[in-house]
Amino acid sequence: MIRNRKIVIDTDPGVDDAFAILLAYRWFEKDSILALTTTAGNVGLETTTHNTLGLKKLLNASFEVYQGARKPLQVPLEDASHIHGRLGMGEYVFFETSALTSSEKAWDALYRIAKREGSITLIALGPLTNIAIALEEYPDLPQYIDALYTMGGSTQGGNRTPYAEFNYYCDPHAARRVYESGMNIFMIGLNVTELAFADETTMDGLSPVDADVKGLIDSLKDHYSGTLAGISSRKGSHLPDAVAVAACIDPDLCSYREVPILIETLDLETRGMSRMVENGRRPVQVAVEVDVERFREMLLSINELNC
Ligand SMILES: [Ca+2]
């Protein structure tokens, strides 16, 4: 259990977001997860919020949920419902959810909570739109963020296009704004999340003791082995967001290269590409290697989740 860390998670659930949130809930002290903020991304905002509130109910959790951006800063939303399903959770549907108890916007809540706490760790599992808006509204935000773990980008090719990973492709202007903010960024890109593939043995071993969590996990596993099986030749699951959360939980999970990153916004072909540059910008921590066995062990710890 990780103590004394205050966490806010920005998310667009999203099948792998669900794994990531379960993992966070397993490892961080329950009351240290202060809020989940939602953004459009894998699917639309109403659906990502519904799923986040569904996860809150499933976990019997106390964190607040705040709705954020309905669309990227400057480009239309191109979602990933062909991967995550129309309702974002594969074939799983949350019939019961917690209620949205606040109309405060994600970026306002993020700043308010960060300033109140003095220092928080931010984990961003979707397009960076909410974080970029928060930076525009509150330029002193970076001083209250001790680290931002962002699942996004890649050091070698993308998944949405040959150049770009989905989250940064989805809102390249937001990603660029965040990388220009001077925040202490840990980029958990496709390059390491693909290395940390959850193989068939790991996925077979996932069998949570909690019946409701097991029901969700079993459905998501079926989604990977059924609907998504034709997309990848590898048996198992690629869970990028779970790797980002695991990297935040265990500072030794990934090794990092300190290098400035520039996000492409202008060129249509390379939109959202994360490019390593050497031009005097503030460097960020780019994950380059990952302890795959350690990640798989951590993932299996979801089995012990006690809701
Ligand atoms: Ca996500």
Q: What does the radius of gyration come to?
A: 17 Å
General form = globular
The total tally of domains equals 1
Strand element count: 12
CATH names the topology as Inosine-uridine Nucleoside N-ribohydrolase, Chain A
Mean pLDDT: 95
**Bound molecule kinds, no repeats:** calcium ion
Q: Ends: how far apart?
A: 15 Å
Q: What count of helical segments does DSSP give?
A: 12
CATH superfamily: Ribonucleoside hydrolase-like
CATH architecture: Alpha-Beta Complex
Which series of helices and strands comes N to C?
EHEHEHHEHEHHEHEHHEHEEEEH
How would you sum up the major sheet?
8 strands, mixed
Would you tell me the structural class of the helices and strands?
alpha/beta
Give an overview of the whole structure.
The protein has an 8-stranded mixed β-sheet, with helices on both faces. Helix 1 packs parallel to helix 11 (240-249), helix 4 (106-117) crosses helix 5 (129-137) and helix 5 (129-137) packs across helix 7 (172-179). The chain is of the alpha/beta class. It has helices at 15-27, 45-59, 81-84, 106-117, 129-137, 166-170, 172-179, 190-195, 200-205, 211-225, 240-249, 292-300; strands at residues 7-11, 33-38, 64-67, 120-124, 145-151, 185-188, 198-199, 236-237, 254-259, 261-263, 274-276, 284-290. The model has no long low-confidence stretch (mean pLDDT 95). The protein is globular and about 50 Å long. It has one domain: Ribonucleoside hydrolase-like (Inosine-uridine Nucleoside N-ribohydrolase, Chain A), CATH 3.90.245. 36% of the residues lie in helices and 18% in strands. It starts with 6 loop residues before the first strand and ends in a 7-residue tail after the last helix. Bound molecules: calcium ion. The site of calcium ion has 8 residues, from loops.
